[in-house]
Input
Amino acid sequence: MISVIMSTHNRGKKIKRAIESILNQSLKDFEFIICDDHSDDDTLNIIKRYSEIDSRIKIIINKKNIGLQKSLNKCIKESSGEYIARMDDDDYSCSNRLEKELEYMKLSGADFVGSNIDFFSNELGVYGQKVYPEKPTKIDLIKSCVFCHPSILIKSSIIKKYGGYSESKKHLRVEDYELWLRLYKNGCVGQNIQEPLLVYTKDINSIKNIRWVDRIHAFNLLNEYFHDFKLSYGYYLFIVYPLIKFLIPTRMRTLINYIKYKK
Output
């Protein structure tokens, strides 16, 4: 069985699509654990209505907002599946996502599996695609985050063995990247299915919302694992790249973003 885990906060306007994309999967043997991280809109009521229709949904209700890292770890603790799949509250999965990922996982021997993704915005619809390397190496992972978090299926034994998501403040908004780096450091490997199995909501102008503190967290994270991976200093440029990229004017970064992912 697969345990699908999702944390949500104030996503009443978008969460229906995410929930339905999981409930309509071709693979039916799963539980869907949704943690409401103290929403103050109608998010929790929407989740409850779906749980009344489909008993595979299990709800965790946080009495206060504790953030994504801790909420996901609560979901992992409550999970009972042999595999754990991530889902985000504003994206949607293709109907055969879980079936294809599970089949690929069993054939490949990988410890976790992701996929390529399509990009979606309300203004443009599906406007682009991101292709990840099929068999990322440690060097690939240092160069960039080569896995899309909400597309991931991972062995439950693996993520529990290595302690789930870091709850440290220094890993805020890079908790997924830190997990992949930590798993690779301990000899685990991930792979990516070379087709889009997730539609990822990404406003083409979202780059405007990237904060300097997020770049600092990414820099510190990569700096830490760069030394753990014992790579040559020729690769250090990729460590400082998150900081350099922030210095590019916003309009130019937005244009680059559009050109890079446009189909």
Remarks:
- The two ends are 35 Å apart (CA to CA).
